[in-house]
Amino acid sequence: MELSGNRVTLALAGTDNFLHVDRDDFVISLRTFEGGIERAYDTGCISPAYTVMKSSSEVLPPYYHYLLKSHSFISGLQTTVTGIRDGKTVRFDNFADLILPVPARKDQQAIADFLDYETARIDQLIEKKKRLVALASSYVESLVDRAISDSSLPRKRFEYLTRRMTRPVDLNNHDELVRLGLYNRGRGIFKKPAADEEGMGASDFHFIKSGDLIISGQFAWEGAVAMATDDEEGCVVSHRYPVFRATDSIKTAYLLGFLRTKLGDFLLNDCSRGSAGRNRPLNAWRLGKEKIPVPSIALQEEVERAVVAHRKIKIKTEESIEKLNEFRSALITAAVTGQIDVNKWSRRGHSDAKLDAIAKEMEA
Prior knowledge:
four-stranded mixed β-sheet
């Protein structure tokens, strides 16, 4: 917990009041209204905040594993729990009100086998796509590592390589402003609701230009660093996100790559650390005083090309993975509700055609 910053629920009072769970039991969890009912894969104990259900003789757990997490089931369950809020569990009575299909056991097994095979194929394809992005990311890291490994490289203060942007936005002169935020762990930029809907003053936002380096004031130590592209041109960010514009002596893509190396991560962590060892907001002034190794422009440009290629691969891959997940969800719902004949579907190659189409879109 101390190393990761995450909170873990600990059974400090003991497990005397915990519930026994057997393999293939089903569990109503706190997030059931969003993600369906969970299937237990091991024997053990579970918090009394959950509800444990044992299958009847008509139920084949592999089939109901898919049914109870399908989109159609979750939609039906949500209609029985009006007004539900985060942290409130679904009661067994809510679940018991639902009418579920009960195919013959041989049909349940056929559907489960079909979905095991098809979802495994989709999951493997998703994993391959994720590895492609990881390889592109590793290539960028290797280039930057090679660039900074030369101990004879000149070093310059961050404040001499960049200019911090502080021009506020006049919200009165803009009808629609798109606000940006940063994912942590180096995942990039996302768009938030329009800034003018929040009633915040002009001093709270700053304009972004393509090529600007954006660093999270709150989560820089978690890798929340990104470079704006043409897609973010003209958007705004909160004053909590320090924005830097590179001078002619440095490439923004190189700075981005450097800040995502172990050395850059240490630097950001050091500039975001309090006296008690707890992480705190980034000290932009302190970051400006840090000295950064500056390789040749040729090597910086090589890093820039790799960063641009990585971003394109990442965007295409994320779009492809989203479509694969949508197809996976639709296929499960169609199979468990009898909308498709799983035997004919397989023989006719419907999945192959769909997966090929998604893969082809990524290559375009």
